[in-house]
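In full, the data:

***
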Amino acid sequence: MSDFKINFRETSNINIVDLKGYLDAHTAPELEGAFQKLMNGKQYNIVVNFKNLSYISSAGLGVFMAYIEEVRKNKGDIKLANMPPKIFNVFDILGFPLLYEIYPDEKDALTKFTSNK
């Protein structure tokens, strides 16, 4: 079974989701559950930190697509940060930078949330 971990942090009404390990078809339901937990709690300002993610499959990418509409409909956003080059290349090839704001580090993503208010 693939090693995958999710950690939640919160700062200034922004939820930070730290991903670690392999996000694939076997572990994508864990990320779905994490996003659903945030939606149920009406938490729509989300930064996903990819610093410790080593792999993402199409199933993992699909989770991001599944939740972005609901988040934005509720005046929130999902900002992506700290992507290793290998992970960024996957997002880039599929055109995700047109749909998501991707930042070099978490601090930049957090600042973008607070500067928009």
